[in-house]
Amino acid sequence: MSAPDALASQAALIQAIDRAASAADAAAVRSMADTAGVQPATTPALPLETLARYAPADVRSHLLAQFGRALERSAGPALCRHLVAVIADPTAGLPDAVTTAEALAVLLRAAPRGALHDQAGAAATLLAEQARLSTNRLCRRLDQPDFPDLRSISLDVLRLEGVRWVLGILGHKAALAALSEHGRRLSRLTLKHAAATITAFVAKPDLLALYDNVAVVSQVDNLLTVAGRLLDALADGEEERTPFVEPDDQVALSAFAAALNGLAEMLGRIALKSVGRRDVTPGLVTAPLDQLRFLRQFTARLGPSRPAEFSTLDDTLQRVTRAIALRFDEVTATSGGKVGGATDDADPLTTQARAVSRLLSALS
Questions:
Q1: Of 39, 71, 111, 343, which is most buried by a Cβ count within 10 Å?
Q2: Is 242 helix (H, G, I), strand (E, B) or coil?
């Protein structure tokens, strides 16, 4: 059996021990241990008939007494090394990061002290440090004047969440707290930079600012990942609260919502001036309509725990959308057309009607 296969078998064995609740489970564990080449301790194994009278917790204790020390020596250090490797590269092979962490946690609980605790602590500290370095690189990129690379940032936030999950399984509170701060700091800086990009467009809506603005607003899923991290942190009380002072995470979310609200107002004004007109390039009409739709998708998917400022944004979106739809109906009725009535794709009103329809659907 190759080393990766052996480690996967040992991790599966550890998990089977942790789930064992009956004599039948104990028999299966002993068979798995024999297949994996894990030698039991010299303590005599209790007959299955005896284990059948044991409570589930006592069955597990006996199995750990049988195989725990051998697994700690043979699998413990390898699990620590593999955990670091598989988080850095998920294709590093089985077991996956969560299975590795769960198996390691079982061994750590079985032996409250010893070398394995030091090794697992070192692995947890290394994971937190690697995450910090990655986050710092992205934070430095946020200092650049261009719009933020939201895809890279959202992927890093998700990766940090994966590492946080693993550290939570291991119960390494110090590394977990450090990692929590890294992820929240990256999310706050990202929203701050995105808000600055949006505010710059609202203040001076030239074509260059429009490009940056579209690049930010259209990335709904990535924005949700970043904002969702701060919403989760607020819900879980990760940031230490100070009386009469808003948490930094709350401030970042509220400021971002305020920037989006200003953008919604401006996009509404642009759309009201251009909808229903055949003399305006279709793309210039549909662009603000699509951005309003992206904003609606974002606010709707944030969920009920979103700050109050996002409810204000939602009200703005409802108001401007109704005004745009009414304006489009009025203008097309006056010019002899109607919403959705055009069949010629070359007619600018057909493209506009579809964009208005998509926006209305997002609000329903």
A1: 71
A2: strand
Give me the long-range contacts of 324-332 (CB less than 8 A, separation at least 24): 324/268, 324/271, 324/272, 324/275, 324/289, 324/292, 324/356, 324/359, 325/356, 325/359, 325/360, 327/272, 327/275, 327/276, 328/275, 328/276, 328/352, 328/353, 328/356, 330/276, 331/275, 331/276, 331/277, 332/276
Closest CA to 146 of 224, 211, 206: 211
| 270 CB neighbour count, 10 Å cutoff | 18
Alpha-helical (H) ranges within 37-149 are 48-51, 56-74, 76-88, 97-110, 115-141
Question: How confident is the model over 183-241, as pLDDT tens digits?
Answer: 899 999 999 988 988 898 888 877 666 667 777 888 888 888 899 989 888 888 887 77
For residues 176-193, b (16+ Cβ closer than 10 Å) or e, as one string?
Answer: bebbbebbbbbbbbbbbb
Q: Which two tokens stand for residue 4?
A: 């990766």
Query: Does pTM top 0.90 for this prediction?
Result: no
Which tens digits make up the pLDDT trace of 151-161? 888 888 888 88
CA 104 to chain CA centroid, Å, is: 24
35: buried, middle or exposed (CB in 10 Å: 19+, 13-18, 0-12)? exposed
